[in-house]
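Hey, can you fold this one?
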Amino acid sequence: MKSTELLEQFLQVNPEIEIFEVILHDLNGIHRGKWLPREQIYKLFEGGYKMPQSTCSLDSWGRDLEQLVTETGDTDGICTPHPETLAVVPWADRPTAQIIVSMLSPDGESDYPADPRVVLQRVLDGYAKLGLTPVVASEMEFHLFEIDRDQFGRPKHTQRALDGSPALGGETYGIDAMRHMAPIMDAINSAASEQNLPVDTLISEFGASQCEINLHHQDCALRACDQASMLRRAIRSVAHQHSKIATFMAKPFAEDVGNGMHIHFSLIDSSGNNVFDNGTPEGSELLQHAVAGCLQTLSDCVAIFAPNINSYRRLVPGCYAPTAPTWGYENRTTALRIPAGEGHAMRIEHRVAGADANVYLTVAAMLAGALYGIEHKLLPPAVTTGDASELELPAEQQLPCYWSDALQIFEQSEFMRDYLGEEFKTVYAQSKYKEKSEFDSRVTLLEYDAYL
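Sure. Predicted structure:
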């Protein structure tokens, strides 16, 4: 069905819609865009909707990357719609719908290489040449906080002990804990259903006020990322309706666990067969290649998996986040886990990224690493058994644990250049260095406490 036909169908089913939210993803995964009245939505589908290409590289505060603007003159690009992402917005005050777009060149003839969706498509094209299709599913952890902060600006837990202090834990998998949160959880499920977001499970997690939500796997990685990104938006919006804040911040509290984003993926051939499955519990040689590629390129990708200063608070021992390129079967302490189960479900669980990472770039980097391993027929190191955090590895065999180190490795990475693109690599590094300089130049409360 043509794009315009899908639009007409959507308009007929939803005659009450007055506003369309046009959503473009920036490098941080933040939703940028405009609101269009219903009568102007056709302009988007006719190629007449433009935005500055620099919108993709706005920082977390929505500021331009001056160097890019100077070099390009802040060129406009044409936004192309993805009609399969049309959905109602149930939390909006007025009848509203949303649609995701990608950025094109000014003439509309080519993709803008620093658009996160375009970066992922570049990697998927590499798999298509091999006759392979990634199957992807995401698991995201998040915290639910009170909407008001404490006197120091810190968030306040929704799960508390009798004395008012934060609860000692999040009642992991606790049915009673879930029932206590039922009104907001039911509303999240309802919103997800209205937006055709295939939620699998929703659980109470390890930390106080922490939850995890999982999506069903998809045989289109772009669709899986669209759904993950829109689910984040739905969770935040529904939480706000219930006077709560939902955050995917990697480490809200230094003393508590952080929020991770675990990505599961397998590969299928043109006949729909899982090429990781060879009938054994160990999996196929192709699985070994994919694991090896992910591990060998892991340090190159940390700047994507841990995209901001807070991300590195999570990448420390004891926080259920991997600190070294390890892998294992049914081992949740490793960076890559091969879950147990039926052979047709043989897959890799990538456990490094924080929930704050851009899901498109995370999946692109992860799949690019696996593709690198497959193309170069790499073999992985020995399987890790037991607690991977207790391994005594030299510093050069561990993942970068500081933002500056991760950015330096990223910027110098030939793998990033070859698989995700030179222009993306340049713009992403510039954007992150600018963000880092903002934090480097600020005086913190801890400094006042120590030195005032």
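The chain has a mean pLDDT of 91. Let me know if you want another pass with a different chain boundary.
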